[in-house]
């Protein structure tokens, strides 16, 4: 039975591309080293986003203003921002009434190299993050460095990242939705603090647990279902 089951799983893996959110794992060494799915790169003037049901990339919208994402931007597979992430955000920020944004955990990956395409997987090392709240929703942004990057790859914590690089990333997140003609009263995005590697790993683990609570263990459930069908 197990031989047939393993063979069938192997055929599925060979014939079909894995869903970037559900079918790709965080990585064998997660959360210290993770696999990130990149939706947008610094040359994009379009906001690309994953279509959750299908796993394909689609155009969410053209970027309205001059802001361009300053590094590779995407999400961590098999993560979900729900109750655990929201509770941790409230604990650390001292705010109340925060909920998860019901999306995968966002990540921005810093590299010295010019990578001019999205819809790719990259191995990276989390070094910290921004505790961001968007319209009352926990919307953490994990900061990572590309594994083996010649300039950033050996950096282990966020305090090793040049402050100007972090300021550029922070400015993007705080302003990319802002209307330049508004008086500021419409601003709903805030970054309450910047945290280091230890908290980043905590947020990743919580978001993975939120994912398991919502969707279960996709790989185990798939194998169990096939096993039941095979009798």
Automatic annotation (TrEMBL):
Cited Pfam families: Pyrophosphatase
Q: What taxonomic lineage is listed for the species of origin?
A: Bacteria, Pseudomonadati, Bacteroidota, Flavobacteriia, Flavobacteriales
The name this protein carries in UniProt is inorganic diphosphatase
According to its UniProt record, this protein's enzyme class is hydrolase
Species per Swiss-Prot/TrEMBL record: Putridiphycobacter roseus
Entry's Gene Ontology cellular component terms:
cytoplasm
Q: Which CDD domains match?
A: pyrophosphatase
Cofactor(s) essential for the protein = Mg(2+)
Q: List, alphabetically, the PANTHER family matched.
A: INORGANIC PYROPHOSPHATASE
Q: Which GO terms describe its biological process?
A: phosphate-containing compound metabolic process
E.C. number(s) listed in UniProt: 3.6.1.1
Keywords from UniProt, A to Z, are: Hydrolase, Magnesium, Metal-binding
Q: Name one GO molecular function term.
A: magnesium ion binding
């Amino acid at each position: 039975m197990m031989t047939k089951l393993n063979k069938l799983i192997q055929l599925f893996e060979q014939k079909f591309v894995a869903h970037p959110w559900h079918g790709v794992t965080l990585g064998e060494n997660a959360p210290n080293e993770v696999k990130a799915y990149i939706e947008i790169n610094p040359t994009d003037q379009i906001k690309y986003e994953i279509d959750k049901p299908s796993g394909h990339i689609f155009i969410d919208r053209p970027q309205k203003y001059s802001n361009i994402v300053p590094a590779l931007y995407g999400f961590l597979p098999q993560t979900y921002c729900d109750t655990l992430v929201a509770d941790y955000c409230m604990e650390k920020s001292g705010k109340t009434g925060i909920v998860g944004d019901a999306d995968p955990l966002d990540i921005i990956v810093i590299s010295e190299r010019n990578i001019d395409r999205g819809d790719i997987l990259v191995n990276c090392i989390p070094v910290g993050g921004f505790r961001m709240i968007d319209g009352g929703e926990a919307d953490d942004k994990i900061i990572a460095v590309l594994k083996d990057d010649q300039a950033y790859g050996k950096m282990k914590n966020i305090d090793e990242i040049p402050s100007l690089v972090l300021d550029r990333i922070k400015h993007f997140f705080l302003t990319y939705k802002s209307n330049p003609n508004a008086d500021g009263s419409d601003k709903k995005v805030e970054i309450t603090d910047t945290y280091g590697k230890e908290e980043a790993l905590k947020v990743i683990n919580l978001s993975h647990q939120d994912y398991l609570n919502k969707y279960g263990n996709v790989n185990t459930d798939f194998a169990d279902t096939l096993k039941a069908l095979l009798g």
